[in-house]
Specification:
Length: 311
DNA sequence: AACCGTGCCAACCGCCCGGAC
DNA sequence: GGTCCGGGCGGTTGGCACGGT
């Protein structure tokens, strides 16, 4: 057992087999890189022996794919990458490999870590803050009648709170999805990368800009929510209006009929096209999975009407 | 200066899937 | 059809860094 393993706090159970564990040294990295450059990785299990490394093949593969492989992007995530992660996570849950495949230079491990340490926490904090704000508005201050709270604010809080809770719930439940969803995920990736997916993201951006410009108090704090951009209908929350975009408010805001209606038309067209594509799905899932309605369309990953994912 | 708590992230572990036999 | 094996994936662990007391 070497010093490094002692520092790592791990008893090298494989030491008796001559297999080293723990952090990789620069020397080991160099050996691995040189070998793969010359011979390719071949069979991972036999690689350590041929390369002269005292590691198991699995460890070599992990080190290569997550750290040494060319094209790995280090450093902080950009706004765009973050937004993509959130959107894809809303669709696929904890399927990090699928998400990573859409973000060049980032590994599944890195995305998983980023989600667990940054995004998930941010989502929970925001949801709690919003719920707290709502409670304060409604009960803590007797002189502060809830009717005096701006409908826009109240509606926004309800909306964001409900959506975040549902999004978090979905992320937890997604781990329980059956393997049949793999093919569904593939199909969604196809859509995501198509022109349709591209235009869908543009349309969504339009709605977000509209939303942000009229809900500054939410937009300024709701980085998670505003960038995730995948409003979700929460079934177990008492919010009667959460599925409707904010339409009428006391501050005189009147949504632009033109931009709204054209966006809705685009969304409607998008929905129809997607439905057509999904009819060709090799998986054969029923269309309860993907429903259109007057509010737009919904993707119900668990096929429960109470947990639909609203676009 | 020492200790403690917390966040980050590289690495490990165990399970699962698909291909070969 | 059953078994074995390699590889991939997601969850978890634990050392390090850093800030607060």
């Amino acid at each position: 057992m070497n010093l490094n393993e002692v520092k790592m706090g791990k008893i090298a159970c494989c030491d008796k087999n001559g297999v080293k564990k723990g952090a990789w040294t620069p020397e080991e990295d160099q050996i691995l890189v040189n070998y793969i450059k010359r011979h390719g990785h071949g069979t991972w299990r036999s690689l350590p022996k041929h390369a002269g490394l005292l590691r198991c093949g699995k460890s070599c593969r992990l080190r290569w794919t997550n750290y040494l492989r060319p094209g790995i992007k280090r450093g902080p995530f950009s706004q765009e990458e973050e937004s993509t992660i959130i959107q894809l996570h809303a669709m696929f849950g904890n399927r990090w490999a699928v998400i990573a495949s859409q973000i060049p230079g980032r590994t599944d491990n890195e995305i998983k870590n980023y989600w667990n340490t940054h995004l998930k926490k941010r989502g929970i904090c925001l949801a709690e803050n919003l719920q707290h704000s709502l409670l304060l508005c409604q009960s803590d201050n007797p002189s502060h009648n809830k009717d005096q709270v701006s409908p826009l604010t109240r509606h926004s809080i309800q909306w964001e709170s409900a959506r975040l809770e549902a999004e978090l719930r979905l992320s937890m439940e997604s781990s329980q999805l059956s393997s049949s969803t793999n093919k569904i995920a593939d199909h969604f990736l196809l859509l995501w990368n198509s022109e349709i997916g591209k235009s869908f993201r543009q349309i969504k951006s339009k709605h977000e800009d509209l939303y942000r410009s009229h809900v500054p108090e939410i937009a300024s704090t709701a980085k998670f929510g505003s960038s995730s951009c995948v409003p979700i209908q929460a079934g177990n929350i008492n919010n009667n209006h959460s599925t409707n975009m904010i339409q009428q408010e006391e501050d005189g805001y009147k949504p632009s009929t033109d931009s709204n209606s054209s966006s809705l038309c685009e969304l409607s067209d998008f929905t129809n096209t997607v439905s057509d594509m999904l009819l060709d799905s090799p998986v054969g899932f029923d269309l309860d999975f993907f429903q259109g309605n007057e509010d737009g369309f919904a993707i119900s990953l668990d096929r429960s009407p109470d947990n639909s994912l609203m676009f």
